Amino acid sequence: MGSDGRQENNVSELTNLFSLRKIADATSGFDESRYVIFGVPFDGTSSFRRGSRLAPDTIRLAYDNLESYEFHYGVNFSDIPICDLGNLSVGEDVSEVIDDIEIASRAIVSRGKIPIMLGGEHSLTVGVVRNFSDCSMIIIDAHSDFREEYMGNRFNHACITRRSLDILGPGRIVSLGTRSVSMEERESLQWKDVRFVSANEVREKGIDKVINELDSLGMQKIYFSIDMDGIDPSEAPGVGTPEPYGIHATDVRALINHFAKKIVGFDIVEMTPVYDNGNTSMLAAKLVQDFIGSKEKPR
Ligand code: MN
Ligand code: MN
């Protein structure tokens, strides 16, 4: 030990053994990156089936099984400057976690980079959205998440659409896949300020017609938030609050493909590995590729 350098060698050996998990294609440093991924292992306000705090690393593990070359988009992800910061250190107070997410994502956005957050529960989205107050928002979710407060907390994961409305204002949020709404939410005066596209509406019209209608809203910059329970439980069983009769993963992919060039920030939340058969984490990893792939696809 001491000046013979053995101590340093021991430390580097340990670092190799305990290396932090990153998205496999995230080989870029922060400064030269275009996309910045970070995980937030927090599910403190989740009420039913907790476990989304375990999702960030599970999604990274699933990602290891994807090819770096993406056949559909014709891009090689290992050539794209992607940085993975790892997981945010979190405490128990959701408001403090959201504040930290706001600070972290501001550092990313202010340098012209695109944040990709892996939750964690849906309440976390508010922290990122605070940096996008001039943007529109597309949410995928079975739930309207439109409560003024839940369990005595305005930052509960059941309030995220409402909190985003506080920031963005009326007429700028579209939530797709809706099929679970309380009467209190449906009768609130602000209900009309968000365009809720129910899962039934997507099924009846088809996603192409829905996309045409959304085009007429003239959204320019879009923050895109995917609550995995918006997708049908048969395709995404590993979620905290599953809800039957959802939209298809291919519907979500079509939305991402269509709006990619306008999307300025992206998150995937509410994936819960404990209840997964492996397909939900795989789908979440693939949605990260869908987002980056459709942004980088040669025109
Ligand atoms: Mn939600
Ligand atoms: Mn939900």
What key phrases describe this protein's structure?
10 strands, eight-stranded parallel beta sheet, binds manganese (II) ion, alpha/beta, two-stranded antiparallel ribbon, 299 residues, 10 helices, globular, Arginase, Chain A
Description:
With 299 residues, this protein is an alpha/beta fold. 33% of the residues lie in helices and 17% in strands. It contains ten helices and ten strands. It has an eight-stranded parallel sheet, sandwiched between helices. Strands 2-3 form a two-stranded antiparallel ribbon. The longest helix is centred in the last third of the chain and has 18 residues, at 279-296. It is globular and about 60 Å long. It binds manganese (II) ion (2 copies).
